[in-house]
Amino acid sequence: MGILMGVPMSRKKRGPAPVREVKWVPDREVAPLRTLDELLKYKEEPLLCVVEPLSEAIERGKPGNPRTIFCHDMDGNYKEDRFVYGSDDASAYRFHHWQIIDTFIYYSHQMVTIPPPGWISAAHRHGVKVLGTFILGKDDIKTINIARGSGLTSQVATQLANVARTGRFDGWLISIGCKMDRSCVPFVKNLLSAVTTETHKAVPGSLVIWYDALDVNGKTKPQNELNEKNACFLDLCDGIFLNFRWTEEMLTSSAQLAGDRKADVYVGIDVYARNTSYRGGYEMYKAVQLVRRCGLSAAVFAAGWVYETQGKRNFAKNQYRLWSFPDNCCSDWRLTKPPLSTSFCQGFGTRVFEDGKLRKLGHMWFNLHKQQLQPRDQGNTLCSTCCSVKLHAEDAYNGGGCLRILFKPNPNQSDVKPYVRKYELDDLRGTDGAILDEIGLHFFCIEGEANVWLLGQLDVRRPGDVRQAVPDERASGEASVSEDSSSDDEPERKRLRDEQYGLDAVMAE
Fold first, then answer.
1. Which one, 26, 82, 277, 317, has least CB within 10 Å?
2. Which residues are paired to 382 by β-bridges?
3. Would you tell me how many other CB atoms lie within 10 Å of the CB of residue 472?
4. Rounded to whole angstroms, how far apart are CA atoms 427 and 340?
5. Alpha carbon 487 to chain centroid distance?
6. Coil, strand or helix: which one is 240?
7. Could you tell me the end-to-end alpha-carbon distance of the chain, in angstroms, rounded to an integer?
8. Is there a contact between 172 and 134 (Cβ–Cβ < 8 Å)?
9. Contact by Cβ (8 Å): 97, 374
10. Alpha carbons 198 and 367: distance in angstroms, whole number
11. pLDDT tens track for 4-52
């Protein structure tokens, strides 16, 4: 995951990944395409699993608002997550802070990185788009010359679009960082434009983002800002991912040049903070704040730092800390229509529950397909340290875990006890039929009041609005459900089963 000449999006040569014997999975895994020949010969194959489509029930911010990308690079990736049907390593890296980000990029050091379907399903369930990567590094000038000399622009673009459509993901991060003559730049621009056009055709709503590795003169010199040397690439696609070594002055000038496309400028933030002007690690959110203050978007890179350097034993605790962003670093996130179904499983466990009953004990498993809708405030301490909400892996309704509300008694207020009440949606319905309901917890404590948006907002408009109001039969107290939404072959409509248990059933200790 090292930075090569200031360009982290490189194709550093690596040895083959160590092969680990996995006992609990069929012999099926996802692999990248390593050469131009592999890409050109790529043929559509039927997927052996169901991939969750991008949720249409989630609204993320407003057009033009700053966004956040998480670009996931952890030692070249394709670890336990590469197995289509999961693995038996419950300690594998996972991510569940989906409400904080808008786009997830799966990155490796290969030419064409195809995101594993587990990541796609988990992200799509939360309304997050997933991008693969197409990378030509410093040693790939021969590939450029072959594609250019043989007139392969259209074929390469079409094949990349086919890969995205077949893999059920949402576009590409394009990084071309090989030193070239200035005469090659028009070919690169034509390729970027063609990939954008073909991917938009093949995958409606898709994104193609350019990485800041090459300037308009053909030099592999990242600009770390939007300027006259790289702005032409932004004009040809949906966004630009700036390199990581920026300053506040560069942010200001980038915002000025971007104009009404400020949100399409993604400022790279290296969690390792290698030769940067900002702090990384647990303080990387401060860099996100600086970026958003200028109206620009953020691109968090290599957040696997917390798994690789901080110890796997405390991974969950450290992950909560790393992604505990303040509100001004987060986009609005709301559910726009029922049904709402979750047991809060993160896609791993040491046992398996079905309908509240233990089915398998001592069964180590990891499968991001099984990850269910996740809350934003999980792991945080709430109400001046008296309450917190955390994953509980010893019990579950469905899957391998649930949420547990923890109450820490105040020694100075020994008579204060926790009290949890379940509210039906009809309790909050206005006289005109409108609902604007926060799905989560509301605490009243001695120290004050706290509002916790565990699942954002369920926003149902008035009957006269553009969006139709939810019928009465769906707006009952049974709208909070604990059905397992992660079954690979279960359609959405079956998730309404067991609605009567409510959210309090899956938050039980």
1. 26
2. 387
3. 10
4. 18
5. 20
6. strand
7. 40
8. yes
9. yes
10. 32
11. 333 445 555 444 444 433 334 445 889 999 999 999 999 987 766 789 9
- Residues listed for the chain: 509
H-run or E-run covering 96: none
What's the CA gap between 412 and 417, in Å, rounded? 13
**What is the reported pTM?**
0.82
DSSP track, 396-419: -SSBS-EEEEEE---TT-TT----
Distance in angstroms (rounded) separating the CA atoms of residues 94 and 347: 8
How far apart CA 465 and CA 425 sit, in angstroms, is: 19
| C-alpha dihedral sign at 2, 129, 91, 89 | negative
Residue reference for tokens 């390469």 = 156
Alpha carbons 418 and 405: distance in angstroms, whole number: 10
Tokens of 25: 């999975």
> Which two tokens mark 269?
């933030």
Q: Distance between CA atoms of 276 and 194, rounded to whole angstroms?
A: 34
Token pair 């200001």 in the structure block, residue: 252
**H helices of 228-362, where?**
231-234, 248-258, 284-293, 305-309, 315-322
Q: In 3D, which of 269, 372, 315 has the Cα closest to residue 90? A: 315
| Pairing state between β 239-242 and 265-270 | parallel
Q: Would you state the structure tokens that stand for residue 305, as one six-digit string?
A: 């730092």
pLDDT at 435: 45
What per-residue confidence (pLDDT) applies to 492?
A: 34
Q: Are 238 and 212 in contact (CB under 8 A)?
A: no
Residue 381 β-bridge partners? 388
Selection from 78-87, 206-215, 328-337, 413-422 with the highest mean pLDDT = 206-215
Asked whether 355 and 401 are in contact (CB, 8 A), the reply is no
User: For 95, which DSSP code?
Assistant: -
Q: What angle do CA 138, 31, 205 make, to 5 degrees?
A: 85
DSSP H or E segment with residue 122: helix 117-125
**pLDDT value, residue 31:** 92
Query: Which two three-digit tokens encode residue 423?
Result: 């509210």
Q: How many CB atoms lie within 10 A of CB 432?
A: 9
Which of these ranges, 72-86, 100-114, 192-206, 211-225, has the smallest mean pLDDT? 72-86
Q: Which residue has the tokens 């009290």?
A: 419
Give the Cα separation of 469 and 471 in Å (integer): 6
Query: Cα separation of 345 and 372, whole Å?
Result: 5
Using H for helix, E for strand and C for coil, what is the string for 206-233?
Answer: CEEEEECCCCCCCCCCCCCCCCCCCHHH
3-class secondary structure per residue, 333-400: EEECCCCEECCCCCCEEEEEEECCEEEEEEEEEECHHHCCCCCCCCCCEECCCCEEEEEECCCCCCEC
The answer to whether 234 touches 265, Cβ cutoff 8 Å, is yes
Which token pair is 327? 């509100």
- Residue-wise pLDDT for 64-120, tens only, equals 999 999 999 998 899 999 999 999 999 999 999 999 999 999 999 999 999 999 999
